[in-house]
């Protein structure tokens, strides 16, 4: 884990479910095709619908962005 930071497991939890009811969970919209998540501490990630029709397009876009 980076000094003063959360390690990969904490970052994944923050991106996937926002840290629980007392943190950022209310900011997750599970019915959206794509969500870009950026935390105050710099944690970032993307959540997207893994459906075949949407997944390939979103994966290509994220690959281009990165």
UniProtKB/TrEMBL annotation:
Which Pfam families would you find in this protein's record? Carn_acyltransf
Q: Choline/carnitine acyltransferase domain: from which residue to which, for each copy?
A: 14-65
UniProt-listed Gene3D superfamilies: Choline/Carnitine o-acyltransferase, domain 2 (3.30.559.70)
**What GO molecular-function term can you cite, just one?**
carnitine O-acetyltransferase activity
Which keywords fit this entry according to its UniProt record?
A: Acyltransferase, Transferase
Biological process (GO) annotations held by this record are: carnitine metabolic process, CoA-linked
Tell me the domain of life: Eukaryota
Provide one Gene Ontology cellular component.
peroxisome
PANTHER family according to UniProt? CARNITINE O-ACYLTRANSFERASE, CHOLINE_CARNITINE ACYLTRANSFERASE DOMAIN-CONTAINING PROTEIN
Protein name per the record: CACP acetyltransferase
Organism in which the protein naturally occurs: Irena cyanogastra (Philippine fairy-bluebird)
Q: What lineage does the source organism belong to? A: Eukaryota, Metazoa, Chordata, Craniata, Vertebrata
- Gene name per UniProt: Crat_0
């Amino acid at each position: 884990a980076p000094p003063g930071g959360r390690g990969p497991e904490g970052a994944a939890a923050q991106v996937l479910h926002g840290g629980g009811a007392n943190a950022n969970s209310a900011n997750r919209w599970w019915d959206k095709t794509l969500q870009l998540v950026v935390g105050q501490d710099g944690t970032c990630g993307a959540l997207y619908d893994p459906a075949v029709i949407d997944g390939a397009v979103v994966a290509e876009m994220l690959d281009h962005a990165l």
